[in-house]
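Researcher: Next entry in the queue.
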Amino acid sequence: MPATYPADSVGLVEPQRAVFPAPLALECGRTLSGFELVYETYGTLNAAASNAVLVCHALSGTHHAAGYHSPDDRKPGWWEACIGPGKPLDTDRFFVVCCNNLGGCHGSTGPTSTNPQTGEPYGPDFPMVTVRDWVASQARLADHLGIERWAAVVGGSLGGMQALQWAMDLPDRIAHAVAIAAAPRLSAQNIAFNEVARQAIRSDPEFHDGRYQSRGVIPRRGLMLARMLGHITYLSEAAMREKFGRELRRGKDDYDFHYEVEFEVESYLRYQGESFVERFDANTYLLMTKALDYFDPAAAHGGSLARALASATARFLVLSFTSDWRFPPSRSREIVRALLETYKPVTYGEIEADHGHDAFLMPVPQYLQVFRTYMQRVAAEVAA
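Model: Structure for this entry, 384 residues:
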């Protein structure tokens, strides 16, 4: 329990809620009659509303990107490494906003919300949402906050895809797009990982075609397995070897020849899976992985990412990590090449890091320095 907060932390924060009563037409063809978004803000919006930065979260992220909700919190928000005084997203200069995505399970309207038409949880009846739908909902949040144009939209992984979508769909409302550890679309291998995770959930006896909530149960085993699989892909082999090696659990010095937990890595993955079940919803996980699979802006332009990005007027920062095998540097360079083809201003950094895909969440010094330097330029542009 932090008795006091670090000087570079935003400290105690409180989630806020925005209600949008107007209908939202979704890319899947269905319409939400209205929706709510839960969000957090850090820093102060200046008089010109020119210093706002939108942070888009990844697959299992939430609106809680920095700081603490209570002095009892053991951990800060998920991007504490990058948000706070003096950090890349310097809250002494920027007004940082992060919302829980539409379809999420941490307060924004999603499968666990009550369907106004039935009075029951949406569950599997919640419509499929896409990255483009998230951008449309986030634009309404910007209107709600009085922000006409973001100084930057930033994100890692699935969050980076949202930054790209912002640049394509609403070019007049974004000055910089920062895509970290992202890709222009998923590979077949990535879609395959997502499908295995979804099948783990859907084949759980407690899934009940997605109506587990009304039955008062949770497809725990399926959701746990999905998270364990996903977690393996977020780490590099080097990171797992360094962290666990082939070490047996503490107190053990030999094999027991059974299928219970013996190795440290088994214990770690089970812990990650079990704790995930306590904080995430299975239908939301299905929804988010499908949104990842569907993201492919080049598809509507004959497979040309350059043509898809032609409408963008933002300047771009693209960062990748050498040990990220889920979205390796070669995928980020696809984005860079597409931008250069149409003479878009782009800065690219390939960061040496052993942490795998999760490196974008880590306080890797070179990464933070490159990110901070770029954002300092953004701050200077808006006189923040």
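Model: Residues 16-185+296-382 form a domain with the Rossmann fold fold (CATH 3.40.50.1820).
Researcher: Noted, moving on.
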